[in-house]
Known about the structure:
Number of strands: 11
Strand content: over 45%
Mean pLDDT: 94
Helix content: under 10%
Amino acid sequence: QVQLVESGGGLVQAGGSLRLSCAASGRTFSSSGMGWFRQAPGKDREFVARVRWTSTFYADSVKGRFTISGDNYKNTVYLQMNSLKPEDTAVYYCAAWKAITVQPDYWGQGTQVTVSS
């Protein structure tokens, strides 16, 4: 059974940094990818970033500020978030894919990130 467990959310002031972690168990995802989505209150869930092997992909809204990385040995993905803005406030969800498709196949439980102005 696949499980994705996130950690690292919290409250930070604008301009600050946070690092999210997501540990996967049950199978490996290095060849198909792991990533992050987020959902702000009253908005749809949106893509943030994805990593597959050494390839990374980002939403335009986070390019240059967020960095995604993966540790294949630990089956863990990280999201380093710098220069945070109040509009980054959301629940962040870890995601994993079984294949190279658009929609993820697995989701974590979510972790709250709140950026105060």
